[in-house]
From TrEMBL:
This is HTH-type transcriptional regulator TsaR. InterPro entries: HTH-type_LysR_regulators, LysR_HTH_N, LysR_subst-bd, WH-like_DNA-bd_sf, WH_DNA-bd_sf. Keywords: DNA-binding, Transcription, Transcription regulation. PROSITE patterns: HTH_LYSR. Coiled coil: none annotated. Pfam families: HTH_1, LysR_substrate. Belongs to the LysR transcriptional regulatory family. The lineage of its organism: Bacteria, Pseudomonadati, Pseudomonadota, Betaproteobacteria, Burkholderiales. It comes from Paraburkholderia caffeinitolerans. The keyword DNA-binding applies. Residues 1-58 form the HTH lysR-type domain. One of its GO terms (cellular component) is cytosol.
Length: 316
């Protein structure tokens, strides 16, 4: 198996046709076809078939594509690393980001990073862990920032906690229960969570059961923070937000954070990356900028910024 064959395979998957893949690679369609056909001949198994809509991957082709993507992306990262050490500007850093981070700490970290590595292109993927996990697995993402995954993922990924924060129950201003003082008063609410699917069980177990309360009747999941915010602001649904998100100006102006007797939830944000693949110099620089941004925010003379950072506990 050769690298140019993997590149052709990945390009065909991304482009959806041989002609478009060849154009993306800067080669002729015949050369792209030859690369994949030689790979099939070497392995004695069909990988790609033609159909009326273009091309389709066989089961074997789909299995190999996962590894081909990882190899192609890792080679690209290796080239970026060498270019950086030669003093050449360029390269790309791809990061998965839990939605609420983009509204809180991300801008400060990006500003610091851009000053230190101005030639590096940043690419962000918004999504919870279950959304970004396939991109981590195939190497599209360098790392992800968000809640750590279950123990079943430890064999595949490293999960390094970087900070923790408390959370609060939020609802729209003017909600009939906006002055509630206990979770007991909220048991009949409908809930909307911008968390992973496992969060439905977590909110019932960690938030209600540990306080000896009955479970909510309905817990909805939103894979978009915008969707969650829209529903909270315009319905009687309640949610749970980490405090840094509660402290953003938009949330303060549109939502009510309840002062409850019970502790609601403690959110840990981790760096999630493929096990056995070291972080690039650019990735290490970005994480250093994130840590520095948090320290600077805590000590800021601007009360608006201090509000954003005051609830954080650094774990690195």
């Amino acid at each position: 198996m050769k690298f140019h064959q993997f590149k052709a395979l990945v390009a065909m998957a991304d482009a959806g046709s041989i002609r478009a893949a060849a154009r993306a690679l800067g080669i002729s369609p015949a050369a792209a076809t030859k690369a994949v056909r030689e790979l099939e001949a070497e392995q004695q198994i069909a990988l790609v078939t033609r159909n009326a809509n273009g091309i389709a991957f066989t089961e074997a082709g789909q299995a190999l594509l996962v590894h081909a993507r990882a190899i192609v992306h890792q080679m690209s990262r290796a080239q970026d690393e060498l270019d950086a050490r030669r003093g050449r500007a360029g390269g790309k850093l791809s990061i998965g980001v839990t939605p609420w981070l983009a509204l809180s700490f991300l801008p400060d970290a990006v500003t610091l990073f851009r000053a230190r590595m101005p030639g590096m292109q940043l690419e962000f993927y918004e999504g919870l862990l279950n959304i970004v996990m396939p991109r981590l697995r195939d190497g599209t993402l360098d790392f992800s920032l968000g809640k750590p995954g279950p123990a079943s993922l430890h064999a595949e990924f490293t999960q390094t906690p970087i900070f923790a924060t408390e959370s609060a129950v939020v609802m729209r201003r003017g909600h009939p229960l906006e002055h509630a003082q206990s979770l007991k008063d909220l048991q009949d609410c409908e809930w909307i969570l911008n968390w992973d699917p496992a969060s439905k069980e977590m909110v019932t177990d960690d938030v209600f059961r540990r306080h000896g309360l009955a479970l909510p009747r309905t817990v909805h999941l939103a894979h978009s923070l915008v969707v969650a915010m829209g529903l909270i602001m315009n319905t009687d649904m309640a949610s749970i937000f980490p405090w840094p998100l509660v402290e953003t100006r938009f949330a303060r102006e549109n939502l009510r954070a309840l002062s409850l007797q019970e502790e609601v939830d403690r959110t840990v944000v981790s760096v999630v990356a493929r096990r056995g693949v070291p972080l690039s110099a650019a990735a290490e620089c970005f994480l250093a900028c994130l840590k520095e941004a948090i320290h600077a925010g805590e000590a800021s003379q601007d009360p608006e910024r201090r509000r954003l950072y005051h609830s954080l506990e650094l774990l690195i």
